[in-house]
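Box 3.1. Reading complex inputs
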Amino acid sequence: SQQGEEDPQALSIQEGENATMNCSYKTSINNLQWYRQNSGRGLVHLILIRSNEREKHSGRLRVTLDTSKKSSSLLITASRAADTASYFCATLISSGSARQLTFGSGTQLTVLP
Amino acid sequence: DTGVSQNPRHKITKRGQNVTFRCDPISEHNRLYWYRQTLGQGPEFLTYFQNEAQLEKSRLLSDRFSAERPKGSFSTLEIQRTEQGDSAMYLCASSSMTLPGETQYFGPGTRLLVL
């Protein structure tokens, strides 16, 4: 079952603009991760934020986490056409031997040149 | 390229046939995962190995699915008596206990089409 839900499902912006994607989840987590997937390809890990962190930066990426609202956001600044892809949030719930990531259904980002 | 490789990249088969996929993880990673992804959806967890031990299986993994990791290195996923509903992208990922948050690195996937 999908733990996270991304919002919006699709987003289209002009090159140079910022893109914000949101993710909500249902249960307590150890960490939340964002992945990117180009069409028909595998997933690329972008950034991880632990449950005790509130904000994290990596290059043009900024991730926030609000555990009280069970939500996260991914901001991509100064977007480029090459950022066009699907973006997924994934939560890690480590319990005993369990180590599975639970993914949302993704946001399809299109950056127009 | 994350260092995780999967073969074949594409597979077309007829309903009722058996198929087998292979995953070669990053060499120093002791954890290996299989996920399934259908069009427009995020990946769904199937199963997970730590070294050669299969520690967790999803309810999605019916009796027709079996996965092995005999020497704690590469893994195979076999689907017996394939059905059209098995058509999907099958993704493999690996991780190491020493990585922060156990970041999982994904392979390019095997796209299966069952006719």
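In summary: Chain A has a mean pLDDT of 90.
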